[in-house]
Every structure is written in structure tokens, then in C-alpha cells.
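Homework help board

Subject: predicted structure for assignment chain

Our instructor gave us this sequence and asked us to write out the predicted structure in C-alpha cell form, then describe one feature. I got the C-alpha cells but I'm not sure how to describe them. Can anyone check?
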Amino acid sequence: MDKNDIRYTNYVQILREELKPAMGCTEPIAIAYAAAKAAEVLEAVPDRMLAEVSGNIIKNVKSVVVPHTGGLRGIQAAAAAGAVAGDAGAELEVISNVTEEQIREIGEYMASKDIEVRHIDNGHIFDIIITAYKGDEEASVRIVDFHTNIAEIRKNGEVLLKREVVTTDDGLTDRECLSIEGIVDFADTVDLDDVKETLVRQIRYNMAIAEEGLRGTYGANIGSVLLASHPEDITYRMRAFAAAASDARMNGCELPVVINSGSGNQGITASVPVVIYARCNNKSNEELLRSLVVSNLVTIHLKTGIGRLSAYCGAVSAGCGAGAGVAYLQGGKQEAIAHTVVNALAIDSGIVCDGAKASCAAKIASAVDAGLMGIAMYNEGNQFFGGDGIVKKGVENTISTVGKLARRGMKQTDEEIIRLMLED
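My C-alpha cell output:
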């Protein structure tokens, strides 16, 4: 792909937009970001707060430990952390520099202040409105459609900022330019200086939290379980490290991750197995970086049709991405990667998202396994064909079908999952 090709510029920009560092699960961090911004506008730590959030935000925050809070979970904890100790200028690393004293203050704030939570439906799957009050003063911040997209800021009824919200990911580089053919061409030809900083940071951050997940005790310890059962098997090692990173992240580990498509779990899944495979097979740094271009862009391509949040588990897309990245490391080109993606989608597309929590680690292990099975099928001359369930003829048609399944077909499933989660 020539550097003058508009796709080249777009692909570089898409990687920079999507592969950002974040501290903790991204939905609670988005709440903390909104609360920090509201407190900044208010110019005070608020006396009380109102958190109005869409169902998918509730789903993805309810069970997650918020980092730097002393083990607190949920929406109120995220809002309190942002308001008391957040740095709004740091965006998704808003609570990355919290002190021990501030952790105590967050706990005291939670115990003494009113933080009301309301479920809203304004037609956006991703919707957060934090209103902070101090005496007669108030400030509100609204984030819509993706984690750093502040669409509105108000203070005492005055509109300080308002952006028209038209479509999901409004303001980001158009993802319609993505295709499997284009991704492989770009990976083959990209000047690594254009993407190296972004990808090296992803390797450093995500491998660090994977190693911490295996050292410590987090969640259900899926990574340690996998590694103990098959310590010499590289495929188990790939799954174990990815699962361990998720276990640590979902359960309060205070290390950042580099996300993909707004999700730390997807960033982990798209990168860690590829890094493990490359290192175990003595691949060069250049080979690793080019394979990470493939894995990350395939994940983003799959997620574009699905949307940021859905009843469709995002680890499935990232597992396909990881499979594509490993296929590329094995010397596979467009055909091998296309078949790997279709095969993996056919295997694992039924996994539902019931929120961010410890079992995400096990789903990640399953998604990576599906990606690896997709490669193995292709290498042995086997495949799923158009007409096999949701599989269509051609990889792009299959990707489009899965997007429709996840975005439209699973809408009612998503609503039922949220309803069930709110019952307790």
C-alpha cells in the first residue's frame, strides 16, 4: 500500500485512535472521567452527584473493581473516585495517580455523600450523564457513544459545550475503509516508524498486566489454571497470559492496559497471544509489529459493524484478530487470514456479553482458542462454507452478517440481560 493511498493515512490514524492507554475497565473509567470533568467545571468536590447511565453502562460497571479505590466496585465508586481524585486532563488514565490519602478520601466520600444512580434510555447504547452539586451550584457532563466523547457540558443551566451527536464514533476516522485485503496489504508495506510507538506501548503495557495476573491472585485465576494444566503447550500459554491479564484488570489491578475498540479486554486479547506466539517462535521484532497491525485492525474491522457495546461478546472479535495475527506470523497472507477469521466467527459467535467481570477471562481464553482452531482448520485444508449457519461466501460478507447479528439481532437479548442483572 502506497503512503499516498488515503487508506494508508486512515489505517495509521485508526490505530492511534483505538490503541490508547486506560487504567481499569473502560466503562467505570469513563464514569470517573465524566465525574472528574464535572468537578473541574464546578471548581469543587461536589456535595452530591447524580449518575444517569444507559443499560450497557450499568452492565459493564456493576461487578468491576475500580482501581485505586481500595477494592470498591460499581458506578458510585467510579463517580466518587473521579470527583475526589480524578485528573480530567488524563482522560482514560483519569485515576492513574491516586495517592493513599486520596483512596481513604474516596472511601469516606462514598460513606458520607449521596450518589444517586438512574437508568436512562436516550437512544444511545453508550450514554453517561454526571451531574455534580455544591450548594446552589451544579455542573453536568455528558459522554456519548464512546469513552472520551464529551458531547455536552453545563454549569448552572448555562451550556458551555454542546456537540451534535449523529452516529456512533462520530468524529473518528471512517472505518469503512477497512477490509481484510487492505489490512494485509497495509501490514506488509507500512513504514513501522508510523506505528511503532503505538504498538510497542501496547506490548509493554499488556504484557506487564498479564505477568502480574499470573503472579497474583485475581478473580477466578483462569490464567494460572490453564498454565498449570498444560505448562509446556504454547496454545495454552497464549490463552493463559491473555486470561490472566483480564483477571487482573477486572479485579482491581492498578496497571494500565492499551485498549482496542474502547475495551481493555479486547486490547489484551488482540495483542497478548500474538506476543507470546512470536516470542516462543523467535520471531523478529519487525514480524511481531506487523502481525500486531493485522490483529488490531482485524479486531477493529469486526467491531465496526457491531458497535462499542452489545450483547455480543467483544472477546470473540479480538480472538479472531489474535488468530489473524498468528496466521500472519506463520507466513499466511490474505487467504489464510480470511479463512481464519471466518472459521473463528463460525465457532464462537454465540457468546453473549453479560457485563465486565471475572468470567471475561474465561471467555477470552475461549475466543483465543477459536482463533487458533480457525488457523488449524485452514492449515489442514478445512473450512466452513457459505450457507453454514451465519457464514456467507466471502470474508467481508461474513463480517457484515455478524455485525448485523450483534447490532440488530441481539438488541432484545441485550435488553433482557440488563433486565436480569438489575433484578438483584
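Reply (TA_rk): Your C-alpha cells look well-formed. For the description, you could write something like this. The chain has a mean pLDDT of 93. That's the kind of observation they're looking for.
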